[in-house]
Amino acid sequence: MNKSYFLVIVSVLIWSSMGIFVRYLSVSGLIAYFFAALISTIIFALLLVKEGKLKKFFAKKYLWIPIIIGFLGVINNVSYFYAYQLTTIANATFIHYLAPVLVIILSPLLLSEKTEKRMWYSVILSLVGLFILLGVTNLNFTKNASIGIILALLSAIGYSLGIIFFKIASKHYSNKEIIFSQMFFSVIMLLPFVIYLKPTIIHSDIIPLITLGLLHQGLAVLLFITALRNLPSQNVSIVTYLEPVGAVFLAFLLLNETTSLHTIIGGLIILVSCYLTIRN
Q: What is the C-alpha R_g of the chain?
């Protein structure tokens, strides 16, 4: 397997474990993302200081790119969390994972990437697998559920544009600078909300938050961006469909959650789609 694909798969599987750690938190997803981003910001700021690059980062010509990346990170994560609260997890997840479709549509316009027919075959196959895996039978269009679906779609837009702007930023910034910029500007944008909410962090929150900051918002993002430098954004986005498959598997393995036949079938279809993407 291409080394870059291996890095994408590892990063996606790390992200698939996020739900397990979030379950142990007493704070909301917005607060959890803020503190995870804050921890990641501190780590990568120290790394840039050690390399003598932190001051140079803020003096660079294309600073608007990392600012946009930070904004998209907030849109993606916060919208996704509130979508979970307003509609079903299955519906929120399915709408959120329309992101690879948006990447295939937008990457020729913003990145000048060529879209091959096999990319459409792969993404449609993945969507079918995800639909079966999640057991999405209907979309509830009550007022709150409709808002949740809109937020999930907004999350998908933030996710897809985030992938594209990661690719754009890689031309001007190092991997560490990109991660620092996303987390730093996310923290700045969320700080007023955190001050207003005045959250209380209890002792049991510390380990999950540190793990989210170091592993999910640190190492996983670093691996993902490293791979994205060497792969088309369309291919990478399709491989991210492994995240819900990994989440279901880990829930079964660690939380003793049951899996049904349609879950297994949907997961296998997604695996086939990702295999076809990687093989080609």
A: 18
Sign (positive or negative) of CA dihedral 129, 223, 218, 237: negative
pLDDT of residue 11: 93
Q: Count CA within 13 A, CB hemisphere, residue 276.
A: 18
Report d(CA 250, CA 268) in Å as an integer.
15
Annotate 3-41 with b (16+ C-beta within 10 A) or e (fewer): ebbebbbebbbbbbbbebbbeebebbbbbbbbbbbbbbb
**Whether the Cβ atoms of residue 74 and residue 189 lie closer than 8 Å to each other:** yes
The Cα 194–Cα 188 span in angstroms is: 10
pTM summary value? 0.85
Predicted confidence (pLDDT) per residue in 116-175, tens digit: 888 888 888 888 888 888 776 555 556 666 788 888 899 899 999 999 998 998 888 889
Q: What is the pLDDT of residue 42?
A: 94
Would you state the pLDDT for residue 93? 80
What is the residue extent of each domain of the chain? 3-279
73 neighbors 158 (Cβ within 8 angstroms) = yes
Whose tokens are 């840039």? That residue is 48
Longest dimension (CA), the chain: 55
Give the Cα separation of 107 and 160 in Å (integer): 9
